[in-house]
Specification:
This protein is mainly α and 412 residues long. The chain is 81% helix and 0% strand. Helix 6 (148-173) runs antiparallel to helix 11 (286-292). The longest helix is centred in the N-terminal third of the chain and has 45 residues, at 5-49.
């Protein structure tokens, strides 16, 4: 097609304006997601931070305290299993908005009530909504951003800020249920701002609407997912990783206070070091994920994190300060591993595949937390906490096996 000078000038101007508009929209989405991720990071960490307060306020034994965490991961299982399928059926935008509303409602429940039962109900919806939102963010990133791998890891860095804030700052002053309510009220306000911004920006995003309903034959078939052997490998990898990372989030604080007899400020520092390392790593390592590739990045980081984590947990004592290096190694594992799922499944079933994998892997969390309280009551925290490094070792071994045995079917 031939264009004269005037038409070329107009065409170039239109292209430039379109590019600037897209860039502004990317920034807008990033801000919306960043606000959300800060809240989710803080929300997920607060269970562990306030565990001693819950225990004293509601007069709970170890098993009853463990139930709070177990129910939260049951929320993961239900939300991921159902939410991922609904995303493929009705569009990821609608399910994302619904999940945000569920999460905000759970925060509101914490604020307006004060009982053990409502706390358990709240963590079910809060944790389930949070994990589904994390997964959908991974799926949406290639649609909304030009450099999705880097963007996803920097957003999870932002989530790490929320986690570190909860453990390092909130943890130092967490001395009452009233403080718990104030923190959740602040997250409600930020969550509403994030939701309004996302709704406004995503109105005309076709890639976020119903994607595979043009033809009945394109409907998701679970046989296509279950027949893929990497489906089971991912479940094992995520399952053992969840036990290791979430074990630190939920139990490290009370372990340090109860078993190691640390003061509150020092006990809250230990998980803060771990998740602070994760936060820093997601910012520093994120650019290398694009350069090295998803699979190699995961291998190097998993090996580094597992080796340091195992040494730290087994030796204990002053080596606990090395948790910051273990966190640095584990930093990109969850967001990048979630993105790695997309390498092995066709686009039309990737959301359902991701949700199913993560929901089934959550059963590891549920089983661990269901029995961990009883384990602690019988053998104590010292021996019980060794489950965490063992899980990390199994995670990296299964990942190496999958990487060597199965090749990706597509690239991102």
């Amino acid at each position: 097609m031939y264009l004269d000078k005037k038409e070329k000038k107009l065409y170039n101007k239109n292209e430039l304006n379109r590019g600037l508009t897209m860039k502004k929209k990317e920034i807008g989405f990033y801000i919306a997601f960043a606000l959300m991720m800060v809240c989710l990071g803080c929300s997920d960490a607060l269970r562990g931070v306030f565990a001693p307060i819950f225990q004293s306020h509601y007069q709970l034994n170890a098993s009853m305290l463990s139930l709070i965490i177990t129910i939260s991961y049951a929320g993961n299982f239900v939300f991921m299993l159902i939410g991922s399928r609904l995303s493929d059926e009705f569009g990821i935008r609608k399910v994302f908005i619904a999940s945000m509303l569920c999460w905000i409602a759970a925060m509101a429940l914490y604020v307006v009530t004060d009982s053990y039962i409502t706390l358990v109900i709240g963590v079910f919806f809060a944790m389930g909504g949070s994990t589904l939102l994390n997964m959908m963010l991974n799926i949406m990133s290639p649609i909304l951003f030009l450099a999705p791998a880097t963007i996803v890891n920097t957003l999870f860095f932002v989530q790490g800020i929320g986690t570190t804030f909860a453990q390092g700052i909130v943890g130092r002053f967490a001395n009452s249920i009233s403080y718990w309510k104030y923190i959740n009220l602040g997250m409600i306000i930020m969550g509403i701002l994030s939701l309004v911004l996302f709704i406004t920006l995503s109105k005309n995003e076709k890639g976020l609407s119903k994607s595979n309903t043009t033809n009945e034959k394109e409907k998701v078939n679970y046989k296509d997912i279950l027949s893929n052997p990497v489906f089971y490998m991912f479940i094992l990898i995520f399952g053992f990783y969840f036990v290791a990372e979430h074990g630190i989030m939920n139990w490290m604080n009370i372990y340090c206070q109860t078993w190691l007899h640390m003061e509150l400020s020092k006990a809250s520092l230990m998980p803060t070091l771990f998740f602070g390392g994760i936060m820093i790593g997601r910012l520093v390592i994120a650019p290398f994920v694009t350069k090295l590739g998803i699979q190699k990045s995961l291998l190097y980081c998993l090996l580094m994190g597992t080796i340091i984590f195992t040494i730290t947990m087994v030796i204990g004592g002053s080596t606990l300060y090395l948790l910051i290096l273990a966190g640095l190694g584990f930093s990109i594992v969850y967001p990048t591993m979630t993105m790695c799922i997309q390498l092995y499944f066709p686009q039309n079933i990737v959301t359902t595949a991701s949700g199913t994998i993560l929901s089934v892997a959550t059963l590891f969390d549920i089983l661990f937390n269901a029995i961990f309280g009883m384990v602690i009551d019988k053998v104590g925290y010292g021996l019980g906490m060794m489950i965490l490094p063992i899980s990390a070792i199994l995670c990296v071994l299964f990942y190496i096996f999958m990487m060597k045995r199965y090749k990706p079917i597509r690239k991102i």
